[in-house]
Amino acid sequence: MNLKKLALTLLIVISYNTYAQKCSCEDNFNWLKKNFEENDAGFQYVIDQKGLIEYQNHSALFAKKVKKINDLKECRTILLDWLHFFRPAHLSLEINQDYVNKTASQTKTEPAKNWEKLQITEEELKSRTSKNTQPTFEGIWSSPPYTIGVAKVNDEFIGYVLDVKGTKWSQYQVKFKMKQNLDKTYSAVYFMGDFSSQKFSNVQLIGSNFLKIGFISLKRVFPNNFKEDSDISNYLESLTAQRPFIKEISNKSVLLRIPSFNYSNKKVVDSILLANNKLILSKENLIIDLRNNGGGSDATFQKIIPYLYTNPIRTVGVEFLSTVQNNKRMQGFMADSDWSAEEKDWAKKGLEKLNANMGKFVNLNEKAVDEHRLDSIYVYPKNVAIIINENNGSTTEQFLLTAKQSKKVKLFGTTTEGVLDISNMHFIDFPCKDLKLGYSLSKSLRIPGMQIDGKGIQPDYYIDKSIPDQEWLKFTENILNVN
Question: pLDDT value at position 113?
Answer without folding.
Answer: 67
